[in-house]
Structures
1.
Amino acid sequence: MDNELVVIGYVRSSIKDRASAPKMEDEPGAVRARIEIEPAYADGLDTMRPGAKLDLLTWFHQSSRDALKVHPRGKEHLPLRGVFTTRSPNRPNPIGLHQVTVVEVQPPATLIVEPLEAIDGTPVIDIKPRKRPDRE
Amino acid sequence: MDNELVVIGYVRSSIKDRASAPKMEDEPGAVRARIEIEPAYADGLDTMRPGAKLDLLTWFHQSSRDALKVHPRGKEHLPLRGVFTTRSPNRPNPIGLHQVTVVEVQPPATLIVEPLEAIDGTPVIDIKPRKRPDRE
């Protein structure tokens, strides 16, 4: 398997470190942020429009990849759980999955999105349109 | 950046090839399937329960990674679009994002889930709980 990720772009955000980032994008502290797509991948944004609802996939490059059990939300009084039952950034493949809306498309290859809790410099690995409401 | 994915498990499904797979998991042809997690990652399933709604992330190992523009749903009469405005499996990082429900947890490390359109043998790279309804 060709299992090496390519970085298609980076998050540019006013959130500069993990300590000041909220846990989830719908919590206080998530911000409007820039997604700067690398020139080599700019064509992949063709027909992107403001208002688009996206699944934004990032790579939590500062996370530990060794944890298989974690305390939910980092709270040590909560019992340990398997990492696949949590959204902890510490996981074997530290992929972040964020639901964001495109506010603006800036040529040649920048998206302004909100709300996003990922820190400045977080690598972006994929962008997909959300195709329908979640069937919760 | 340490950007090499690890395979945490595999999809085991009655869908054996891409030609017979539906495009999306909510279309006819998606099935109940097994997710066999590798022994090294089994602890990550601790506290997983039937009924859990998951974001299942896979790696479309048979996809092309070179396409930046595609015909939506492979229909050549539809105009080309940037791949990041589609959910085509052909994309720079061919990550599949599937919304599934856990039907059964089989020790030591197998999940029965539905509905899933990924083919038999597809690598699994992450499992996350969906935390709330989509804000469409």
2.
Amino acid sequence: MVGCMGRWEPNALERLQEAAMALFLEYGYDRTTVSEIAARAKLTERTFFRYFTDKREVLFSGSEQLEKLVVDGITTAPKSMAPLDAVVAGLEATAPMFEQRRAHARERQGLIAAHTELHERELIKLARLTSAMAACLRERGVPQNTANLVAEIGIVLFKSAFERWVNGSKKHDLAHYVHATRVDLRLVVTGSSAKSSSTTPRKRARSPGRPGSASTA
Amino acid sequence: MVGCMGRWEPNALERLQEAAMALFLEYGYDRTTVSEIAARAKLTERTFFRYFTDKREVLFSGSEQLEKLVVDGITTAPKSMAPLDAVVAGLEATAPMFEQRRAHARERQGLIAAHTELHERELIKLARLTSAMAACLRERGVPQNTANLVAEIGIVLFKSAFERWVNGSKKHDLAHYVHATRVDLRLVVTGSSAKSSSTTPRKRARSPGRPGSASTA
């Protein structure tokens, strides 16, 4: 086996990720071992564990880069931006990271949907991203309750946009879907049904409310 | 030990839950075993596993009842209600289930926040609730993308409202906080900052948009 212990290996991270994905798709996630992933990448198990804490983690190594992009995007958004728009700017800033990775993202989503342990890991990662976003908003002077709520909404927006991008046409990047989902979100929350929607009647049971007119409680 | 195998035990579920919570608070979640929980409840381990698949589950046995209340609330909401308002009606319908349980809920939240494995389980339970809500909305004729988005927003609303209720004054029930969070959600999504908020400037980077006026994308 190539790759003796402790030696620095070029592109080890990428090689391990590619090997893992190839094996997961060929033999199934459950039937692939860390040792097989390392062997396929022509690296040792020890090298694997230098990069990843466990088998699941090989599918989540992008989460730190993702968080950095979102956090930087929120931090550098103009101070005049409303909290949710700053979050949207942060989310849109992640689009380049996913460019050229749509096929990989689709395969990865399929694996996550099919395995509870991967789904759990993803939810924990998203919960961490939520906390990081909320912390950024608090630094922008947004009070804690609002910061948490906006961060949670941001994650919903991101998940929905990502889902649409993964299954969408090649013409549009992730930022396009983030923007489109932001539009739908506004429609859904202000009380009317989202575009292209409604086979249900449009009559509203409550008054739609305008910014500033809603009663505090 | 009282409680021989296979015998029906009155209130076994509640006794196991109470015993578990008492031990978790006294000795810590990690240091409490299933066998100790059963012993404290004067039941056998076998009885424990008739009710719960593992130690974590003893904190989540209410999730089916919760789902039923939400689903019934959405299903019986007037057909004229916008999707998110039907979801809000479903969430408000859960308030009686939590009445008198605020102290328990607060202790439980503390445990979940402190233990990743409990946090993971909670996130999976909420993901299931999200799917159930989305399915209800689709039955009301809401298209899939919108149904998923509204269900996710509903969960954010519920989590935020629950957090506020757990830490809030005794005067108000959970339904009150669901309603209050719904108001904040509207403010946050239409672009202005939520009430009592803003130390940040209010000037908006984007036009706030009115129901029906937002462009589709």
3.
Amino acid sequence: MASPILPLLPSNLEVIQDPNQVAKLSKDYYHFSPVLTAQLQDKVADVVIRPATEAEVLQVAKACVASKTPLTVRGAGTGNYGQCIPLEGGIILDLSKLNRTKWVKPGLACVEAGAKLAAIDKITREQGWEIRMAPSTYRTATIGGFIGGGSGGIGSITYGQLADRGNLTAVRVVTMEDEPQILELRGDDVQKVNHAYGTNGIITELEIPLGPAYPWAEVIVTFDDFMQAARFGYTLGEADGIIKKLISIHAWPVPSYFAALQEFLPPNQTAALLMIAESSLEPFGELVKAYGGTVTYQKTAEAAKKGAALAEFTWNHTTLHARNVDTNLTYLQTLFPYDTDLKLVEHMYRHFGDEVLMHLEFFRVHGQVCPAALQLVRYTTEARLNEIIRYHETQGAFIANPHTYILEDGGRKEINDTQVAFKGQVDPYGLLNPGKMRGWLERNT
Amino acid sequence: MASPILPLLPSNLEVIQDPNQVAKLSKDYYHFSPVLTAQLQDKVADVVIRPATEAEVLQVAKACVASKTPLTVRGAGTGNYGQCIPLEGGIILDLSKLNRTKWVKPGLACVEAGAKLAAIDKITREQGWEIRMAPSTYRTATIGGFIGGGSGGIGSITYGQLADRGNLTAVRVVTMEDEPQILELRGDDVQKVNHAYGTNGIITELEIPLGPAYPWAEVIVTFDDFMQAARFGYTLGEADGIIKKLISIHAWPVPSYFAALQEFLPPNQTAALLMIAESSLEPFGELVKAYGGTVTYQKTAEAAKKGAALAEFTWNHTTLHARNVDTNLTYLQTLFPYDTDLKLVEHMYRHFGDEVLMHLEFFRVHGQVCPAALQLVRYTTEARLNEIIRYHETQGAFIANPHTYILEDGGRKEINDTQVAFKGQVDPYGLLNPGKMRGWLERNT
């Protein structure tokens, strides 16, 4: 179907109309969720536009407003909740060509939205700095997509989450008003578009804080007992003197899904997948000893450049590997309360047995180390999935539901008036990623 | 008095016998405590020996053992609990000439015990690294003295305390057996001599972990209300996205004692003295706004190289400045429990009024941000001081008593069997810093 926007676009723009390509670029990794798959699998854009500059983004915005064409921004399409699925067709704005790192200074960088996280690090590491936190899709994900649709990841054990003050310094946003313009948001104003799925502005450029680029060793430690491994993870998380970037704990049989790592993952053992600063390996080894763990795998930062990155078996890559073996598996996203005794984690681990397989990720929540979980779920029905979610919630665990494409129904649970108001200001026609922001959909009801 | 050791020493050694110099080098800053002053003011060594190499230290150790001469190690004498006061005369071993930084790699350095903290940083910063934590005597204190007698300080808001696993990598120790030798302690074994006042080995060399050398801005924020300032400090401490090195909160009239900073410290205001990574200043400013603070002073890292360092008004330098104005002032060292409502802090603040002036330092305790305090106390009698201490303890605050020179009676409160056993092994004649380790003194009773 030809889009009414095409005649309005300048000829310099890269436009993709090939149906196969458009279909491919209309997808993300929502297929991790059987619920989302049923809801989203037939959604497709009319056309994909791939601007190379912010000026071109502005041209596209003008054409969309003029033709009242929906516009859905896409980074690398590595999201899992259908964040970039075009529910009402229109255009996909693929920002992968806006990929420059414009400057780096101590602890800070300015990057274009389509820059890949790994590509940014390659540049900033020359000066001793790196991105503070990244999803397991680090190699392919873009910084704009991560800010638009992510929440934290590898590195969050030190720096908390993207929503925390200080983890995003500034953004430039192209608006969709009658006269589209470029706005700069700084300070707390960045929260207007942070984790808003691109529903209220097109992020084109960002200033992001950086952390020190320690040489990170990759380590696997195995334990006979899951709870012992979990306690080890907690203690490591709270060990202020040991520098770490990743604490990922996998109860058996989760490690059985990691084909490339099998020789390091003995059967029936819980595996801790870890990134530890090389300079902390010696005290780290004492902690392993104190908890009776066995180091089965250890690579220096230099050696880790080759072969499978350990991080690519953690966070939601765990789910990816598991689903490569068994497509009936889906997942949860759970935040357990601060409790070094891990009582609720243990309860859920025992309560659900083989139906919900425990996979913990430790990270900081407003200064405290908390266990989060991306449990694998043996999926039967949507009703049962919701029952599992409700059980967690009634017992005091917080579920960031990954089985909804509605912004507020995932982790936030409430309407963010500031983000809705900002959408009213910069996207009065509701053209940006329509159908995702409940606060906007319900504003007149 | 001539020491029996002198004829046993090789002629290459620097030996100080001038009584004025020996008296001066027999002192530290115990005079912060009227209790310690009464107990320690007449203690003096017979002679000071200043070796230049570890080999010379070994020669001195041999001579001390042969002549059964007590040996008390001295760094820069910046301690406050009489750690390096020679209770039984003998020799002071002044390690200030063992001051080389031997190597630096990412996150790690090897230094000699007498190296000054600031001098180490000058070298490591060339590679982007710095010492993780330091006392307010950073410019003059030695690393050996800090490990031997310190516990944490500026930087502890990120890395916790020196006693935490990972904050000391390895030490070399000269022993005082019949045949003195050099031992290397690594891993958890470093705890055998960590914070032991030099009672069980002469630390000659250390491997210490380093942190990233952010450019640190120095900032003063003032508040109308002490509790509001304290809450601001807590929130800043727990703000994982904002990089900081120092959160020091001073209720009025404490700021009135900081002569050099008066123009930035309005009367009757509580002052927060802070070190913030320059790259975090923008989000930090939003936090200040949210708490209604006023920034009265802000220096970039570059500008902060000139003039009074803000850190030199915090931790126990606060007490120093206060005592410069009023020698009746002494201090406490208090650890309050984890409680973001700061109930016990508020109770003590109101309960003691002008008798105990509140000075908070936030730092990490096993992963959690806690408020510590080095309150200024208007001293009347030792009995009243002990009453104040007991009141804190009965209400649930932990006091690391700075009015005792006994190792275990300060912060530890219990005998460390490992350290006592190690003393038995390496100092069988009890010659090292005699009279300080209760566990040794009471071992046969």
4.
Amino acid sequence: MKRIFDPVHHFIELSAAEARLLDAPAVQRLRRLRQLGLAYFAFPSAEHSRFTHALGALAMGTRAFDELAKHGRAYFASERDVEDRRRLVRVALLLHDIGHGPFSHACEAVLGVRHEERTRAILASDDLRAGIEAADVDPAAVLALILGDSGGAYPELRELVSGPNLDADRMDYLQRDAYFTGVAGGRYDADQLVASLRLLERDGRVVAGIDGRGVVALESFVLARYMMFASVYFHHTTRLFERILQDVLRELWPDPRTLDDIDEFLRWDDFRVLNELRDRSSEAATALRERVRLYALAAEFNAERDLHAYEACRAALAERFGKANVWADEQSQVLHRLPLVADDATPTVWVGGAAGVVDAREASDLIRKLTGKAYWRKLFVRRGAVDVESARRICREITARAR
Amino acid sequence: MKRIFDPVHHFIELSAAEARLLDAPAVQRLRRLRQLGLAYFAFPSAEHSRFTHALGALAMGTRAFDELAKHGRAYFASERDVEDRRRLVRVALLLHDIGHGPFSHACEAVLGVRHEERTRAILASDDLRAGIEAADVDPAAVLALILGDSGGAYPELRELVSGPNLDADRMDYLQRDAYFTGVAGGRYDADQLVASLRLLERDGRVVAGIDGRGVVALESFVLARYMMFASVYFHHTTRLFERILQDVLRELWPDPRTLDDIDEFLRWDDFRVLNELRDRSSEAATALRERVRLYALAAEFNAERDLHAYEACRAALAERFGKANVWADEQSQVLHRLPLVADDATPTVWVGGAAGVVDAREASDLIRKLTGKAYWRKLFVRRGAVDVESARRICREITARAR
Amino acid sequence: MKRIFDPVHHFIELSAAEARLLDAPAVQRLRRLRQLGLAYFAFPSAEHSRFTHALGALAMGTRAFDELAKHGRAYFASERDVEDRRRLVRVALLLHDIGHGPFSHACEAVLGVRHEERTRAILASDDLRAGIEAADVDPAAVLALILGDSGGAYPELRELVSGPNLDADRMDYLQRDAYFTGVAGGRYDADQLVASLRLLERDGRVVAGIDGRGVVALESFVLARYMMFASVYFHHTTRLFERILQDVLRELWPDPRTLDDIDEFLRWDDFRVLNELRDRSSEAATALRERVRLYALAAEFNAERDLHAYEACRAALAERFGKANVWADEQSQVLHRLPLVADDATPTVWVGGAAGVVDAREASDLIRKLTGKAYWRKLFVRRGAVDVESARRICREITARAR
Amino acid sequence: MKRIFDPVHHFIELSAAEARLLDAPAVQRLRRLRQLGLAYFAFPSAEHSRFTHALGALAMGTRAFDELAKHGRAYFASERDVEDRRRLVRVALLLHDIGHGPFSHACEAVLGVRHEERTRAILASDDLRAGIEAADVDPAAVLALILGDSGGAYPELRELVSGPNLDADRMDYLQRDAYFTGVAGGRYDADQLVASLRLLERDGRVVAGIDGRGVVALESFVLARYMMFASVYFHHTTRLFERILQDVLRELWPDPRTLDDIDEFLRWDDFRVLNELRDRSSEAATALRERVRLYALAAEFNAERDLHAYEACRAALAERFGKANVWADEQSQVLHRLPLVADDATPTVWVGGAAGVVDAREASDLIRKLTGKAYWRKLFVRRGAVDVESARRICREITARAR
């Protein structure tokens, strides 16, 4: 057994086989992918990697699974079945991010391939497959859990791995991102949330959810997500440099199809991209290397009622300064991190209680109010080409009239 | 200068005159009043006193004042004016809670006198008056600030002391209560909130508010209040024993008018009440001493739409089990701690920006959603007299029908 | 199962029988005994009770026991034997402090009875005995563990409960006192220390100790004790008021023998003593109530080489100002809290490794340097009767000459 | 003014000129140098950069300087003089690490040039010189402070920047390294240490030191250094891979002299070295890339009395397995980080008090015991070439005999 120390979860224990899996190049590569991409431009200490997050997700997922098993032993065939699924969940969480490219979301935007899709090919490599099997886990079940494949053998475990709302991925990254940025608002009552996890029966199916006494902990979890979004993930400095980064990536990868080759893809990581900047002289590469703000924030919008104002401002700026000089950031790539985005047909989190199993929106006024589409929008204009003060005034006037 | 160490704010510095004021019996008495009353029945470590909170409020208020003064020097007549008001704010915050009786809210409920009203008489005592004047502060101005008297000389400082929404009282107690209970959800981004404080002009008046870039910090502050309410202040165990405590206080004070005498009033504190329990044999005294849960929670309600169900359950329980065996807890005494309770006419927090000074509800979708009346209600029934399971079933059925 | 939340250890779980034991009046009384006595005169927030410490000791002891059992299953007769001893350790730690009187050390100094001796009588009371047996634990074994009785049935568990060096008592109180005072120096690497605990064989006996890889964690534990002593436990303000408190206790208990009756003894707690101050007019009672410093620190000594200077100063002050006006504080009552006080014959902590089981002084240069007698001494003089500046000068001159 | 958020020091404020200096490529390069080099092999989350440390050193140095100035205004010619020196200290701390090469100590070992020596050339570059002058600071004074040049104009400020014992560099990195590794033992009472800083007069010179009441805080600072050394800086996994890294660097830089050119030197950073590993097939490069432990720890020694045993083991291993297969790690490159290494002639920290200004070894028994040479030694053997168990047994036997 190997013990690894982590400032968020303290000791994380790994079996010998898990520790060997950790040393696989595709997993060690996660040390060179930052959990928060370019957020260090706004929060300098946000330098933590997806590698520490993978360990943290394994740790949180184990605690979550153990709580489900402790209260739901009846849903498992045997003690051995518990152990089998526990190993599966751990390995799936350790590997859930291996499909990410450099700077994750920017990379996906440029290459047009979601990280989950890369996972299949990477898991199929000989060394990973062998490592997973050495840990007495079925690689196909790992893939199904990571992809959230509805045909997977253990549907009730999917929520723990791929969410969308009670996954160990989020349970770790909120705590981790809050710790490494220092943003207090991202902390939530993780002990209480884990303690309330339960397997529940809903319409004849077994689903993962929470006990009714955990509603406040779930609220704190949802609010922490909201606060991290507002403070960190959508910070305008980060967004601005991620926009510039996309131009850099297009320059580095004139033919995105070359990265369809998984070996070539795995040769790329954040450090290599930053390293490539050294000798490049394009405007984007220079801006990223020397921290030049090519864009300026003209306006931001946070509420549904401002959607019209947003569209009107966007159109006005484009007309006045030219479409190429306006960047309307709808931030759709990170929307899956939002608090409980849901439509009426999709459940959020199941909550058990004396009165049966209900959706969290039924159990909590606060969650009902916070659930739904997000309305964060930002409008940037190019410095140099646009008079920033004029752009801001135009937006202010339109917004004031629209209200 | 005296330095006091505090786990929340680290060093708190006091002038020699402030340190002497601290030693006044009416201030030392705050060591025997707990900040969270009987919450230690639910959170054992919540044993912190109003004394440490008074020091913490002084510390937060000083930071808040310094930020206002740094950015708003134009609103002060002179450097000396800054110093004068700073001393005033500090002393007012140090003394803002001296009017509390034992267990605060329970005491107010039984005696029918709000703590602010006691403050006038206590401040008028010779030793406090002399201590305040020795700190070069006007006792009348202190009283006006604590009472939030609209005729006070420094209206823009009232918000810092008596709120209702940006006061150093709340800024300290949220951090402190979160620290001493360990509830993570109560933490907010205090550094960012303080850094965004500004004096603003609104309709020709100077008001305290925040800069537009502080909206996220304000949201974290509002959410922290919500979470502490949901987790700690309204915890059913605390509420239940506070109900029992009221019976004990009535027993201890058969004639509440004897405590109108301020010297007699000051002779009472939490420790004395707990001490008085030792030799009493009434049901309430025994229950408080031996932690006997005389009541059981039958149902709780958190949303506006459940108000009808709440009323219906309350009526049904009263009819079935007798009015005397049902306790409907609307928690109105603690409602002033709620996040941004406001009506349409009263502002919440002023937010400055390029577009002028607006209400926080305009600046934040989240704050608009959370502002308004609170709908937390609990129904308790007396154990022994009532079959608890039947009571819970009645409530469940009524609530299910009402939705 | 009952879950209690604690800011130091997060959730602490109790069985139903343990939770009922918690409600026994002798245990609830611990809520009215402060862990750090009068230290709140120097650190205002040090208001935490022995009740929270008792829960914390149970929590740490459980973690420690589980680690011993996990690695030392061979030393247990059966799985059931593990469970039996685990319950025993938990109950013993929950109850280990029930013999303390008000303000603990001051009380022991005045009454001349050590708290462990009261424990026997208290444990013999009907309700505690019944409560312990309901938890399926033998009251006699509990008593033996608390007293560190060498004839006890489980000698290897004594170290966990009554020390002297690896007990869960210290493991909790260092973390707790550091948390509630805010003194960073009191934190140690508790996770690592617990992870290194092992049952070892030494000269044919099974002893509790640590694995060799835990030496650094043990060092951090020893240093944390040193720092808490230097910062908090021996703080001159605390010592000074504990001296005054002894006079108050003598006033309250003119005949100490009345407290030999255990029922009478249990009727006393910190809150009652503080309450009794209200109407007393003796110098000591007034001083404690109004925080009057009757003594002033004339000199303090921390090193062995200063022992002669200490004795010389003490004699000189006594000669000059009268013996009654000098208080030489050798702090012997708290010496048992010191880091690894030991003589050559008594082991400190056993450390296992490839080379066999050795004393911690063999395994760590740092521990060898820090082990031994403590040489903290303070000389106080009575204000009013003594010119403090003269007293300090006398001590300075003697000390300078002595070096 | 620009505000940067840091999890250790919260808001760090920079003037506009300082913020521009931050964007200089030589400063931004610090983002690609890790504060703890390869320590992330043992503590995965230790991924923080020298960039965040430089900001933290500036923050701690400012607090330290402000305390010195507040209590020592008499040592400054004017208010303007205070401001001038404050700006100087801030800029010097911001830039104190710009001379580091990739992986710092390994780089120095390979290139044979200490980082301070590079600093002169880097500071002489046009853009840094201009940036420093724009911040109204003299580049020559910055260089003198960083180099600890005894001929510098402000000798009393040298201690704050280049130590050896009270520098803001250590004040920050201990807190930061403790935070990012999670090792509790590295925390010290920074608030108390800073609060005790004073300018003192000793033999007619002004020196930086501490007030006598700060001795405990100084002890906690010294102990924190000790603990971080024992837990992190000398961790055998880190040391082992730093040894391998040296071989990699020699491979990357066959002619070390090419890096004498400062432009070429600045083109190297940790990320580039890691990036270069991708396509290399040497044993060292492969080991570093795939985390292969080429060496195994045979024995470690921590005490002076073990020096003979260390030498004997070293000789025995070399004789048995060949010198090339044994690595004796005396860790001399990191010794400057040790607690209060000093000889009798060199002072440690000056401590002021009523009895004059004395060395910290006079004021603290603990510091006297801990001061002196360090005796940490480790012996590694090459896996494959050496039978590790035999090597360990040889060392055990020699050590046992030597004691």
